[in-house]
Each structure stands twice: as C-alpha cells, then as structure tokens.
UniProtKB/TrEMBL annotation:
Protein name in UniProt: PRD domain-containing protein
Keywords: Repeat
PRD domain span: 65-170, 171-283
Repeat recorded as keyword: yes
InterPro entries reported in the protein's UniProt record: BglG_antiterminators (IPR050661), CAT_RNA-bd_dom (IPR004341), CAT_RNA-bd_dom_sf (IPR036650), PRD (IPR011608), PRD_sf (IPR036634)
C-alpha cells in the first residue's frame, strides 16, 4: 500500500489493489515518509474502509483532533473483546469509544468525573461488558496517572454494548429500560426481592437481552431449542403463577412494543420465571 496523503505521523490515506480509498492508522506509520512511499504493514493497528463522505469527514475530524494514544487504547479494548469474546465492534463504535476516552481523560485531568446514572443496571444486566470496562479503566488510570471512579467503567461498557447491539447509545438505554421493566413486573407480581447475583437471574437477563435484539431487529440467531423437558417440568410443578406472570409480560410487550409473543416465547419466559422465583424462595 502506497501513501496517497499523509494526515499526521500516525495516519495516512492509501488505495487498495481495487483502487478503493482506505485510511490507515499505525504508530509512527508516516514518520520520515512521503507521498508514494510504501507503508510498513507491521505498524498498522487499524484500517478504515468502505466509508461514505459523511463518515470520512467524521473520521478525519476525529484523527485531527485526537491524540494517537486514544486510538491505540481503543484498539487494545477492541482486540481483547475480539480475542476473548469474539465480539466485533463496528468502526463507528470504535470512533465514538476513542472520542469518549479522549474526552474523559481531558475532564479527568481537571478533576471532573461524571456520575453514571445507569451504573447499577450495567453492573447487573451487562456484567461481562462491565468487566471489560473495569479493565479499560485500569488502562486509563495507569497511562495517565488518574483516579477514575467505577462510573467510567460503566461508560466504557456502554460503548461495548452499543457495538454488540450494532446501534447507538440510545438503543442501549432502551434495552436497559426494557430489561428493567420486565424484571420489575416479575418482582411486583410475586412480591419477591430477586437475587441479582444468582445464576437463574443472570440467565433470565441474558434471555431478555437476546430477546430485545430479536424483537427490535429480527436477528436470525433467536431460537429456543428443545423445550419439551423444561415445559414438562413446569407442568409437573404446576407453577401456574409463572405462566400467568409470563402472560402479563406478553400484554406489556404488546402494548408498549407492538410485538405479539408466540406461545413458545411465553412458555420460555415462564420457565425462567419459575426458576428465579423458586431459587429466591428456597434461599429464604
């Protein structure tokens, strides 16, 4: 790949074999180089391709206004998610994460730290993403000698969640509110204080996250598998209350999201509700 334009020491514009324009980032990738020179591929840590004019404008603006270290930290986060969780973040999320890191550090150097109003929800509904947020938080604190509170780990987790959903941060807020409303319905219906740390509760929340994605975007991966044994167990236990609670959830979803749950989806909810309520009662 030969350099067509140098943006700064860490970024250049090149063309691939098909002639398509690419923006390439790499530590010192343009240092001592001139237009027409080959780039050192071993220095590349990020390549942007297939962007429209608006995306290119945003990308160039972010490159010009942001120190390379923040792109590198964002890439470390992205690389670890890909390696350990097989999560691929869209380029748009990579950019917003980079911008967020730069803005947060700028505030942190002035002693200005933000409260995260969704911190409890992130910790309890998205523990995996929060775990990586804490790891990224340590990277920032070590790199810049700052003392970010855990709220910042929550903000970083939101960008990861948005990347998983494939949409913007507003979509994350909507998914969190959906999970909160459904779990609240279960709490009020049974007048139980559910254990947010229990395995059955976490499985229920995980199911709601996947269901939200399926319901809103029609993801093909939604499936239930063979439920015959689970359904039989619920019938044997005669847990009519779990089924009736699932029907209340069906009404709520239909009224608020114009989505009609199938009989199988209702039964699957009943199975989860049966498990979390039974586990909660057994602990008392």
């Amino acid at each position: 790949m030969r350099i067509r334009k140098i943006l700064n020491n860490g970024s250049v514009i090149v063309n691939n074999k098909e002639g398509a324009e690419m923006i390439v980032l790499g530590k010192g990738i343009a240092y001592g180089k001139k237009i027409g020179d080959e780039i050192d591929r071993t220095k590349i840590y990020k390549v942007f391709t297939a962007f429209n004019n608006q995306e290119k404008k945003l990308l160039l603006q972010t490159i010009h206004e942001t120190e390379p270290i923040f792109f590198q930290i964002a890439q470390k986060i992205v690389d670890r998610l890909k390696k350990e969780e097989n999560i691929e973040l869209a380029d748009s999320v990579y950019l917003t994460l980079t911008d967020h890191l730069a803005t947060s550090v700028e505030r942190g150097k002035k002693g200005l730290y933000l409260n995260n109003n969704f911190l409890w929800e992130i910790q309890n509904y998205y523990p995996k993403e929060y775990h990586y947020g804490l790891w990224a938080l340590k990277l920032l604190n070590d790199q810049f000698k700052l003392k970010f509170p855990e709220d910042e780990a929550g903000f970083i987790a939101v960008h990861i969640i948005s990347g998983e959903l494939g949409n913007d941060i507003n979509d994350f807020r909507q998914s969190v509110n959906f999970i909160k409303e459904i779990t609240k319905l279960v709490r009020f219906y049974f007048d139980l204080d559910l254990d947010c740390q229990s395995l059955s509760y976490n499985r229920f929340v995980l199911h709601l996250k996947f269901f939200w994605k399926y319901m809103m975007y029609g993801q093909k991966s939604h499936g239930f598998g063979d439920l015959s044994k689970e359904i039989l167990a619920v019938i044997k236990n005669s847990d009519v209350a779990a089924y009736e609670c699932a029907l209340e959830i069906k009404k709520f979803i239909h009224q608020n999201y114009s989505y009609n749950l199938s009989n199988e989806e209702v039964m699957y909810l009943a199975i989860h509700i049966n498990k979390i309520t039974t586990e909660t009662r057994n602990q008392k």
